[in-house]
Amino acid sequence: MVAVPAQDDLRRVLDDDGRVLPGARVPDVSDEYLRRIFDVMSLVRIMDDRMMRLQRQGRLGFYMKAIGEEASHFAVAPLRAGDWVYPSYREQGAWFWRGYTIKDFINQLFGNVADPVKGRQMPVHHSANWLNLVSISSPVGTQIPQAVGSAYAAKLMGKDDVSMVFFGEGTSSTGEFHVGMNFAGVWKAPCVFICRNNGWAISVPSQKQTAARTFASKAVGYGMPGIRVDGNDILAMLQVAGEAIDRARAGDGPTLIEALTYRVQGHSSSDDPSVYRDPKEPELWEKRDPLNRMRTYLRHRGLWNEAWERELTERYNQEITDALVAADHLGAPAIETMFDDVYEDIPWHLQEQKAWLLQQARTRSPHFHG
Amino acid sequence: MVAVPAQDDLRRVLDDDGRVLPGARVPDVSDEYLRRIFDVMSLVRIMDDRMMRLQRQGRLGFYMKAIGEEASHFAVAPLRAGDWVYPSYREQGAWFWRGYTIKDFINQLFGNVADPVKGRQMPVHHSANWLNLVSISSPVGTQIPQAVGSAYAAKLMGKDDVSMVFFGEGTSSTGEFHVGMNFAGVWKAPCVFICRNNGWAISVPSQKQTAARTFASKAVGYGMPGIRVDGNDILAMLQVAGEAIDRARAGDGPTLIEALTYRVQGHSSSDDPSVYRDPKEPELWEKRDPLNRMRTYLRHRGLWNEAWERELTERYNQEITDALVAADHLGAPAIETMFDDVYEDIPWHLQEQKAWLLQQARTRSPHFHG
Amino acid sequence: MPVMNIIQAVNDALRLQMRAEPKTVVLGEDVGKFGGVFRATSGLHEEFGAERVIDTPLAEAGIIGTAIGMALYGLRPVPEIQFSDFIYPAFDQIVNELAKFRYRSGGQYPCPVVIRTPVGGGIRGGHYHSQSPETLFIHTPGLKVVAPSNPYDTKGLLLSCLRQNDPVLFMEPKRIYRASKNEVPEGDYTLEIGKLNVVRPGTQVTLIAWSGMVSIAEEAAIKADAAGISVEVLDLRSLMPFDIVGILASVTKTGRVVIVHEAPRTCGFGAELIASIQERAMEHLEAPISRVCGFDTPFPYTLEHEYMPNADRVLGAIRQTLEW
Amino acid sequence: MPVMNIIQAVNDALRLQMRAEPKTVVLGEDVGKFGGVFRATSGLHEEFGAERVIDTPLAEAGIIGTAIGMALYGLRPVPEIQFSDFIYPAFDQIVNELAKFRYRSGGQYPCPVVIRTPVGGGIRGGHYHSQSPETLFIHTPGLKVVAPSNPYDTKGLLLSCLRQNDPVLFMEPKRIYRASKNEVPEGDYTLEIGKLNVVRPGTQVTLIAWSGMVSIAEEAAIKADAAGISVEVLDLRSLMPFDIVGILASVTKTGRVVIVHEAPRTCGFGAELIASIQERAMEHLEAPISRVCGFDTPFPYTLEHEYMPNADRVLGAIRQTLEW
Ligand SMILES: Cc1ncc(C[n+]2csc(CCOP(=O)(O)OP(=O)(O)O)c2C)c(N)n1
Ligand SMILES: Cc1ncc(C[n+]2csc(CCOP(=O)(O)OP(=O)(O)O)c2C)c(N)n1
Ligand SMILES: [Mg+2]
Ligand SMILES: [Mg+2]
User: Fold this and answer.
1) Which domain holds residue D124?
2) Residue B360 pLDDT
3) Percent of chain D at pLDDT above 90?
């Protein structure tokens, strides 16, 4: 069972009910900014819910939810547009915050002709180079040294862009985590590492990933600061991410942030957590739900009312419905696109294979869209 | 430049001149044991010297010296015969201490018919299963998770054997280091990790390997103790290794030991350090030579005299000469042995290839020994 | 005899062997309480405990690296790689260590590790849940590569693998994990590694397949039969070593060969089969040997059915071979 | 024109490109002050500084992983893997990431990383300083694989690689790093990737080689010539894509083919060449295509000369092909 964390080494601003803790410093952010975050966080919640239902209806092959972890996505909020983000598969908020649209998102899930990645990857493997959001990979951890490379490149090219990379606590066990962190330390790369500790890696609890006291403590081995933050506390998230981004941009090097949160539901649409974990555990964490806590905080600050939330919920639900309807009318990418983008130009052997497939398709295949 | 280390976090018993430091506890070991260690340490020094000269004469393809680092090898001394050791390529002392003979050693270097590994690997890649010394690999770091696997296996099989693994500080940058250490922490594996920090990984100084303050501090990330020891201080080495081995055997889990030492000469016979490092740096370290320090200590303890060292030097030199002469008379392994040990039995395709080669060899090759 | 699917056959073989041989241990991601993402190790944790059915940290290099050390020490580890697409972080441990340990130590250190891993496409898994990496391991001396296509072979071959002393990559066809069913003896039995199975005898064309492609080959053979073409379908079952005698017996009879595999065409195992056959039976060949394979692109998502070989394509190749 | 060896050609190409294109950076183990263990990057650190000639920590996965991120951001990284035997810790980054980035992102993220690495045996390097892993990368869609055999081709091809937008594995034949010398233009020039070179024209047998085996092939051709056999030697230079047109032009002329490579025989690139040739030119073949390769064992130490293909073996294969 994932214990509710000791307070001592955990950065918090809000208590579990969304009230500012005595003595806590509230980050200096505008009302409008906070409302935008709540807006996008709500969208993530709504989207996850809708897509999971669609998946259960058999209309979507696969989906991965972030329910209960959404606040951690907003580590990207203090970034500039020119900064680079390497997400894992569970940070929908990072995409929407940076301008990825509901249409982009849904078209990717359906892998249709309007999918930004041309139907090449499974659902939830987005890519948006126009937003400096890097293509998601399934093998976990690979993005970590890559983010360090981008961070180094910015530094070398005399730009002050920062790179940020997300991964789960399970992923901290990979060799890639180690080599990425280690290079970042040596290079003083302007890179911020967000380890979403949601307690579980599919069926494996975080205590089986490492014997270290905290994931943040792993920073010691790389000569960089490691900060543990309540990942369900949006204000604390914004604060520690903002500090780390500033440090990086100022040339003071990388930071590891462990965002303590919890995977309230299954790992993905293919998972059934009842097989391996106590159903009481998620209940414990539902009380610390990031969206509820943010709502309470906004209400206290006079920034929330029911009508507003109702309006945005309706609006997003409608947008999602519209995007789904549109997506339904969009076919699969043309069969010949299978051979594009393997290389910049199509070499002879792929030309040959393409011609053969088109020939086959014309005469036989029921799936021919070309 | 590799700085002479701060005293604070470094375990030492002897000062640089081989005198016991005020307040230091001398490990409780017998005179005979210490003399045996000095004996074997001398052998390593003599062997390295002879083999390097041989290599320079073009009689040996390749060699790797340990000069200046020999004390660190004796981390194996407190082990039992049943314990397992996974060396890297620079711990000759570990081999000789456990009973690997001068003949074995030299036959391996020559890859002749008496080579314990049948001429399969480059010089210095020994293997001695009868001594629980595991086959050395060139790719660095791979032995680290392997040692953890053996440690786990012993635990599972109800034996109290300990595994010990050696690697250089450069190797701590590999993914294998991380995954091995991490598994060991989680499994509380009876495994002792000896990181020989000799300041250099070929031409790369240790400060370019990591931004961590010390290599020992990396243990924090794995929830195990990390101890930094003066690797040129034989008494301190025996002490920390003995403690770690006892902990492991008692079921208290793994330990990372950083043995601070220095690679006084080139990385290998192929290297020329004058290209990349200040020649004054090794001079600094020669004053801290582990063999000299041990000699002084033994002399103070009344365990050393010149005649004894002269005798053992002569004896070893003679044994080496004899082994070289014998090795000279031993030919290469028979050509058909190339196909043995790929699998337990030789499958059809290798039978076919073997027959073809023997046919070729009979008619053509000047190298045919079969 | 009970009817089993492939998952059940794997599970049964592991359970039998773990009962018979206390040194056999299973390790990998999610193999414990959860029983594996495909449930192949289901129930083993309950029966044999967390020490022998080990949920590891998320690191394939660690899974294989520690399995090697276990095997050297005397255990019989059976690591699972959750998808073969995730095997590459362990690639160094597999090709430089596991495969070479016996050889490089002059026979001192055998390393009997049996790596189980699901392979192949057809489950809408895209780039990273669909790959068929057999070439990489067949090309690595020291490894055996076994690739059954049905439950009966799976159980018998897995038991054989667990009892021999070489490292094995045991490829399981995930698309038909549950769909492929046949009668499987309850108790112990083994099948010889390195022997193919003539799934369907025939006279005019030899059709070679393995793993998930055997059923496609059979489907094509049935269609061919309906069109009056007699096709002999060979299920290789073992790719390293492969059964050259069995292949040549068929090829010298038919003189025409079609090979089907899911992996990309270029440097796929089909190429080796062609090379090996033409070296030994050129005079019997009445047409070029043809291949129906995955294309030389990463495995796509939406177009996966267009990517994968199917019976129509195989039939097309059969016809072309005959018309040559 | 100055005479250079392969090391100098590599060095010259890197220097020229780094001068012309400030985004080009070199990274790897010991590539900085030391100039690489083979000295291929010698002097670059002095000229371009530690920020563009980067001594990395000891981790191939980090070298390639960070190089990918650099390339995505806009740099032109040229990582060195010290020996190709040590490339496997980076295998996941190469096959799952580098090779697939452009494709999986729908063309959004090209990833122009040129990995330089010495390959092949003959330097008494044993298992881990001798491997020829080309098959593994040719079989990975998305990568180009280039393997020059001499200084002139090395410089021209390396410059081409550095200026195109796909990831490349650039294999350097370490045995002849210094021994192979020819005239190399001082300034800029490029050679087209994907085109073979007819090293020696001939009429009776086509002999296909690349990398360190080209000189062996030439030696065999000279011996054959002395025996009255006319051999056409093709240096493939580029393995992915490979020059099928050039190969077929020769094969349709000679009707007989011998392929030489150092990598183990089974699933080596020779197999693909055989498959591709017989698919397209079966009617022209007058004998089975034969292979002279490394054996299917790990690369041995003492017996390395027995292991490696040599001119006598190639000549033997040529004779057998003619006698068939
Ligand atoms: C290299 C690799 N091995 C295995 C997997 C299969 N897998 C997918 S997600 C996952 C667990 C990841 O856990 P964590 O890093 O904690 O992220 P979370 O899912 O909790 O967000 C595993 C094992 C993978 N994707 N990549
Ligand atoms: C995976 C891998 N990459 C690169 C090399 C080449 N190499 C051999 S030794 C070495 C440096 C090792 O340094 P360190 O770990 O500090 O050990 P030391 O040589 O100092 O004892 C390198 C880079 C290798 N053997 N293995
Ligand atoms: Mg997690
Ligand atoms: Mg070192």
Assistant:
1) 3-183
2) 85
3) 100
Residue ranges in chain B whose pLDDT is less than 50: 1-6, 367-370
Q: What is the CATH number of the domain that holds C286?
A: 3.40.50.920
Catalytic, out of B98, B196, B228, B263: B263
**Sign for the pseudo-dihedral over CA of B324, B328, B334, B335:** positive
pLDDT of residue A9: 85
What is the interface size between B and C, counted as CB pairs within 8 Å? 146
* C127 lies in the same domain as C68: yes
Quote the number of domains for chain D.
Answer: 2
Strand C231-235 to strand C197-200: parallel, antiparallel, or no bridges (unpaired)? antiparallel
Residue D123 located in a structural domain: yes
Is residue D218 one of the residues assigned to a domain?
A: yes
* Nearest Cα residue to atom 3 of ligand 2: D86
Cis peptide before B22 (omega within 30 of 0): no
* pLDDT tens digits, one per residue of A111-129: 999 999 999 999 999 999 9
Q: Return the residue in B121, B136, B365 with the most chain D beta carbons within 10 A, the one to mutate for interface testing.
A: B121
Going by C-alpha positions, the residue among D197, D289, D224 that lies closest to residue D251 is D289
Residue C12 within any structural domain of the chain: yes
| Atom of ligand 1 at shortest range from CA of A140 | 26
- Give the CATH number, domain containing residue C173: 3.40.50.970
pLDDT > 90? residue A329: yes
> Which DSSP helix (H) or strand (E) runs through A175?
helix A175-187
Residues in a beta bridge with A256? A193, A226
Distance (Å, whole) CA B268 – CA B275? 14
pLDDT (tens digit per residue) in D40-60: 999 999 999 999 999 999 999
Q: Is residue B126 less than 8 Å (CB to CB) from chain C? A: no
Query: Which residues 157-216 of D have a C-beta within 8 angstroms of B?
Result: none
Whole-angstrom Cα distance, residue C293 to residue C296? 9
Say whether both C115 and C231 belong to one domain. Answer: no
Both tokens of A210, joined, read 């490492």
Summarize pLDDT for D125-180 with one digit per residue, the tens.
Answer: 999 999 999 999 999 999 999 999 999 999 999 999 999 999 999 999 999 999 99
